[in-house]
């Protein structure tokens, strides 16, 4: 049976060319157009543009296409700086003026929070721009793959439309030091295809083991700290729990704003580095503990209680249901969530707020990944009984999370 409100697919076939007008940009960067009411996704376009595309995939409810040419361009279209843009899968927005990128990302985050979390879009603040939209990445992963047509090894990044590797000599969004490292790798390539090479610029003043996480944009890092510090200040809490703390970045940057802190991290090498980083900064009002966040929270008892903020910076997949349920049971005064995936963040905040336990006060997106589909967000959730000004944001579809 045809799904409701989904037009029956016109007689479309792969290889067919169509001219469509772009109506929206979906999360992930693909433009949305329609052929006789049937949704077609196409990358590297802008809202309001008329484009010719070639269909590459036709499904029951949608199709995908390859951009052939721009018939009518948006005034916000710009020339990409990278010669590999359109082939390499690393960037989605180099054809978009930077101010427009920020607006698109804000609209996408607000839409996801409304659709997946049930929150009023007004909860989402404007996107904090990056002061350096190119040359900012301090970590890249270079892949190697044997190209049987060239009879040579490709060194670079996966294509946007398949799993083949694009041979790349330089990356304009990477820091200059990483491009210098890339040239060295190309001069002395891996012995065979299928190997990955991680290139990294070390953060000044921080000990970070090779495989441990650290934010990949040094230029916007101060603003990320400012946002989390301001959320912490507004809640007026005295204790900080930094879950998934890595090498201790947030705990140590915020240690002077609380009486006590504790950082929890499963990676033992990262915990060792966090302790060294604390010693180097003289941050003696806390400790770092090796272990799983859910295990520590399970045994924390009244340690996580009134006057405590729990800062959660989980992997891209978000918090586990167990961690969210433990937070709901323990009810700290504030939960600050940091995430590079707004969809999983909206889902996690929705789970935290069930039955009115937590109110979502604010979400601040930061453009830690210019030219790409990705966006970092910091969310401030307060225990309802402890919520103070500013007033919590109500859900769009239910008054259940408003003040009582």
Assign the CATH superfamily of the largest domain.
Answer: Vaccinia Virus protein VP39
Overall average residue pLDDT: 91
Number of domains: 3
Give the terminus-to-terminus CA distance: 45 Å
The fraction of residues assigned to DSSP E strands is 25-35%
Radius of gyration: 23 Å
Shape: globular
Q: Report the order of strands and helices.
A: EEEEEEHEEEHEHEHEHEHEHEHEE
The CATH level-2 architecture of the largest domain is identified as: 3-Layer(aba) Sandwich
Reading off the top of the CATH hierarchy, the class of the largest domain is best stated as Alpha Beta
> Order of strands in the sheet with the most strands?
13-12-11-14-15-17-16
Helix and strand content put the structural class at: alpha/beta
Low-confidence sequence ranges: 386-404
- What's the number of extended β-strand segments? 17
Task: Report on the biggest sheet.
Answer: 7 strands, mixed
Number of helices: 8
Secondary structure: helix percent? 10-25%
CATH topology of the largest domain: the name is Rossmann fold
